[in-house]
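> run fold Type II toxin-antitoxin system mRNA interferase toxin, RelE/StbE family
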Amino acid sequence: MEVVDKIRKEIERLKRRDKIVYNAIIKRILRIAEDPYLGKPLKGILKGKRRVHVGHFVLIYEIDENEHKVIFLEFAHHDEAYKGM
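> ok
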């Protein structure tokens, strides 16, 4: 499992601001680590990536089949999540 620095910082910020959402995102990350195909596959320019919702937030990730790992790419409010991709 790999978490990009941008997401790591966002999650740490969330830990201080909203413990409930923080705990929910950690649980979701752990579930995805166990079952990477849990999230919905994305289409278009985001093909190959997956997403899960955590409250009003979206966690976008991809599965690296060659390395057998999950790479978490984006975590943001739903209104902002797809803008940085």
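The chain has one domain: 2-81.
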